[in-house]
Amino acid sequence: MALTTQKVKASVTPPQKASQRSLSSGRKYAWLTLNYLLMILLAIFFLFPTVFMLVSSLKANENQLLQDLSTVSAFIPYGDISLQNYSDAFHRLPFGLYMFNSALLITCIVALGLVVNSLIAYALARIPFPGRKLLVVVIVALIVIPFESVVVPLLLMVNQFPWFDGSTTWINSYQVQIIPFIADAFSVFLFYQFFIDIPKAFEEAALVDGASRWRIYWQLVVPLSRPVFATVAIWQVITHLGDFLWPLLVTRGDTYRPLMVGMDVFFDQAPLRWGDIMAFASMIIIPVLIAFLLFQKWFLRSAALTGSTG
Amino acid sequence: MSISMRTKTSTIAKPKKPRWHRKEYFSAWAFAAPALILLLIFLIIPFFIAIYFSFTNQRLISGPLRTNFVELRNYLQMLGDGSLHRALLNNSLFGMIVVPVETSLALFLAILINQKMRGVTVFRTIYFSPVVAPLVVVAVVWTFLYNPGQGLINEFIKAISFGHLGPYDWLSNPELALPAIMILSIWQGVGFQMVVYLVGLQGIPEPLYEAARVDGAGRWRQFWHITLPQLRNTTIFVLIATTILSFKLYAQVEVMTHGGPQNATATVVWYVVHQSIDNVRVGYASAVAVVFFLIVLMRVIPVLRSVIVTEEREM
């Protein structure tokens, strides 16, 4: 694969070299074709389930959908094409409410999480203090604890937690789906990995100038670390959009339920209509995909900062 | 902080190790406190409660039976629990296959789309797109695709083998169910590792390659002697992340197979949830969770040590 990388890099070298290389231009195009062929095959592999889902969601005729399942027509929107399944999904359950709940929960978790997790990561990566190394080990050990294994103790705990509005339990509320997930060991670890790679010279200069740690964090580290903030944010959005077990256990009725639990409700609801389910799934995935398209450049911005320490 | 500090340090030409340690300790702990408190309440304490439960016959709903100390009974019971052994084996198989395959595929994809070619950003987006799909949704769609009678995947296999192979009963065949879940997991997860590698690749200084080319190193040697060593930190990260995620395998199993057929896809996390929520045997489930935590920790410690060593070199 390195071979192909270099080959193509060669193909975009300055024009004066082109004449030199004209002999091998045939091979060059062969490589290029091979590369594109490979990329297209892989693209088909990564796209087909999503395309299948989107196309199926548009087929209003359930029988046609099931018949098309085994052939290429599963990918071709034809026949009875409409948004009927989408409107069915809206009518059969409070999709708007689920959507609002998910959006609210995820926004809170991600916004608060970015601050809390990056702060501790900065302290661990950059401020020398006793116990630092031990804390790093503890954080990594915490990543290992599967959330599912503490679900029952946590359930029994939050069941008895008071809240500001006077209620004596957190069950069936927004906070029970937010607060336990703000601090996340894995996000801390992501930030930590990024922060230790930031050149120390910047900070030392600022420290010599008498800047406080808070100012360094806020005015130096945060602006330099936008890619990792974006990465953690997207990672968190994806993770918590998929949350399923916990919301199912701590909510009763629709009021506080997020999308994934709604999807499960939808499954259990007779009659099982795949068209509606695919429409529901599409409505979850399309907004996330759009958000990703808008933010993807941030992923790749870190360039000069990471990896240079090898 | 600082006027006093400035006067103190400005006289020194080269910044020495600063002496304002006490203030530093305070900021460090202040920065760490919110996360630590939250982790303590919502992860560490529940985990210790789980450890406590593991020595009792705690049930989800207390009911008429009193909760008693049972000493090591839960732990001893694990020794003879065939379903649990199968779950542990499944997790190991999953890790042994998915971690190397996903990591190398991620690196391969990253190198492929790190080229200066027209349209690579489109491909990057396509390869990443499964990552943004919630696992529950992905599992539902793939259940549909794996469908034995008319599923797309069987039809595809039939077509490329000219009708010699299939149809396979993917999710109900004890030998195929776990591989089926592996394929779906790699499909869903590899895009994230790819992006991590891509960031790593773009951080490798170009002069290194130029120097290597001047020295006459071929492309393959450049890959082995520059690209791979330069990606060391990235690879450690990708390995840790993939390993941990593979141990946490749950949603796909819950949605697609419920651990079946004949425990062929049962994983430890799935088993813990199944025991505590469906069978309400919280005490036993907690014991399983504790032992599993120790096993995973053992697995991660060697990798973790290399992280600490790297970091010490840098500090």
List keywords for this structure.
heterodimer; A: 310 residues; mainly alpha; MetI-like fold; 2 domains; 16 helices; flat; disordered N terminus; disordered C terminus; B: 315 residues; 0% strand
**CATH homology superfamily of chain B:** MetI-like
Quickly give the CATH architecture of chain B: Orthogonal Bundle
- Domain count of chain A: the total is 2
The number of helical segments of chain B is 14
End-to-end Cα distance of chain B, whole Å, is 24 Å
Order of helices and strands of chain B: HHHHHHHHHHHHHH
Label the CATH architecture of the largest domain in chain A. Orthogonal Bundle
Main structural class of chain A? mainly alpha
| DSSP helical segment count of chain A | 16
Oligomeric organization of the protein chains: heterodimer
The structural domain count of chain B equals 1
The structural class of chain B is mainly alpha
CATH superfamily of the largest domain in chain A: MetI-like
State the end-to-end CA separation of chain A.
Answer: 21 Å
Name the beta content range of chain A: under 5%
Strand content bin of chain B? under 5%
Reading the helices and strands of chain A in chain order gives HHHHHHHHHHHHHHHH
Please bin the fraction of helical residues of chain B: over 70%
> What is the overall silhouette of chain B?
flat
Descriptive overview:
The complex is a heterodimer of chains A (310) and B (315). By secondary structure, chain A is an all-alpha fold. Chain A folds into two domains: 2-6 and 23-82, no CATH class; 94-299, MetI-like (MetI-like fold), CATH 1.10.3720.10. In chain A, 69% of the residues lie in helices and 0% in strands. In chain A, helix 5 (84-92) crosses helix 16 (274-299) and helix 6 crosses helix 10 (185-195). The longest helix of chain A is centred in the N-terminal third of the chain and has 34 residues, at 25-58. Residues 1-21 and 301-310 of chain A have low confidence and may be disordered. Chain B has one domain (81-314): MetI-like (MetI-like fold, Orthogonal Bundle), CATH 1.10.3720. Chain B starts with a helix and ends with a helix. Chain B has helices spanning 3-10, 21-53, 73-79, 82-113, 120-128, 135-146, 152-160, 177-202, 206-214, 219-230, 232-247, 251-256, 268-278, 282-314. Chain B is 71% helix and 0% strand. Chain B is mostly helical and 315 residues long. Classes of the chains: A mainly alpha (310), B mainly alpha (315). At the A-B interface, helix 1, helix 3, helix 6, helix 7 and helix 8 of A face helix 1, helix 2, helix 4, helix 5 and helix 6 of B.
